[in-house]
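quick one before i forget lol
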Amino acid sequence: MPEQLSFEAVISRLVELREQEQEARWEMGDLLLQAQAVFPGRGFARAVASELGCSTRWVRLLMSVARAFPQDLRAADLTWEHHRIAASTTDPLAWLDRAVAEGWSTRQLADEIKRSRAGEPERDEMLAAGDTLVRRVDEYFARWGPRAEAVLRRVRLRLAAWEEAWAQGLARPP
């Protein structure tokens, strides 16, 4: 870079670098998906993250966005971040289409998705609570083993009662 930088030159270079970063994320996600097919296993993302010095979460995120949006479904008008936000929904393509049609920023897209979920329990909170419940059940049965058989029968009956209530449109078992 020249000694005397113009503001425009700085911005121009930063825009170039940002575009390269966006392209690199797509390429990394695509490559990770291809590699996972060749090297299957539960520890793939963790092993890659360890070698790259990044988090397993980041590796999984790159893969999930690339999986949700194969090359032919990517919106050239939108950033990788738009795709990341849309990929976290149950209908990523519809959200991406709306973002293109409405010209939404990433913040607007995230806000619209959040607004669409209003009135529903927060997905992450619900999943975390469910995971906690499953973990506690596992701990209980690991501790008490076969002696917990009577409790297991009660749990099964209670779950069946909940399923029956929901099938009848009730909020809870009678």
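fyi The chain has three domains: 1-68, 76-120, 125-167.
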